[in-house]
Write the structure tokens for this entry.
Amino acid sequence: MHSSLVRVILAIFLLKFSDCEEISFKNVTLVEWESTARIAVAASDNLKKNIVSKDEVSVQVDGVVPILYETSVFDIPNLRYLTLSSVGLEEIKPGAFENLPLLNHLDLSWNKLTEIESGTFSHLHLSHIYLESNSIRILHSGAFKNITIRDLHLAKNELTEFPTGVFENVSITNLFLEFNHLRTISPNSLSTISLKSLRLSSNYLKKIDPEAFNIPTLVSLDLNFNSIKHLQPGDLKNLPELDELNLVENRLEEIPEGVFNNTKITYLTLAYNKIGEIATKAFDDMPYLKTFDIGHNKLTHWDNNWLGGTSQPAYVKADSNQLSELPDEAFKNYPRLTLLDLRGNKMKKISAKALRKLDKVGNFLLCCNEIDSWGSDSLGNVSIGNFDLSKNKLNCIDGDLDKVFGNVVDLVHLYGNPWDEGCILKIEHFTKMKIHSLRAKLNPSFQ
């Protein structure tokens, strides 16, 4: 009799414990955005039981939700947006998001997730999944299965590797993996997901492995703030559609031939590295290149043969290097530019020979060099929109300034030079007249 009573009590206890164990929503508040209804939930095992609206609904959960079980967010045909951000979520059981045909936007950011199990996200068609700012260290094989996602946000987690098999029959347009601890991307792990944009800034990647970056559909690749020291010929061979490549703040010291040639890249930025050597043909045959940024490096030499066979870049930035002079016909391969930025170098003079074959520049920036003399023919025949010669070491400029800068259409910036007292009035008068002329040009009624 005594043992039978114990078994009955134990069974009741286990039943109640099991019931409690499956409850995800306890002492939480649901906010329906459309109606602004706030629903207090004392205890519930399924979100659906507490949603008031029968129309499409967007729900935000406020409170603490440490775990989502298989049926926690199950079978809600009218759920469009679901926000479970900053709710202390530690675990998601596979199947928690089943049968949600209208779900478009799922926000699970700023929680305590450490891993994503196989099948956690499956049979969904979403615009966004936000998983950033968790503590995710492991993505299991098949974590994302049979789904379509436009934007998958996994930034600010603790991933050290991206293994093969995470995605099974998945289409993702934009993948955000910034601010993780990634050191490796497994070969072909991203090759089958129709990816267009990949954000990998602020990780610990040391190279561009062409087998890891075997992504035929990729258009934009952000590798800023990594630890890449060497580029090898063929690194980009499996990125045939690449249009934008960002390699700011890595550890690059030289650029060899065979990395960028014959690519479709239009935007290339290599700024804030330690680049001191660039092969003569490193940027040849880049027919789509428009923006070329090698600013903030250690270049001491400008090669006038760079960018051969490159139809017409619009923006060339080489600011904050260590260039002391320009060779003759320095820009012969790209005679028409929207921007030529040579600020912050160590150049002492510019000769007309250096600018020969340069036809037109929208904005020509020579600020913050060491230029101490300027001749009447220094600009040659270049047509310039705005010209910045400020913060150099000029004491005076001989001759008629209207003729010296006659091919500058709009403004000439000359401030911050150590002008001789006898030259200041001439400089001020010229500057005022340029400003007056520009105002009259922009506003014909200006007097």
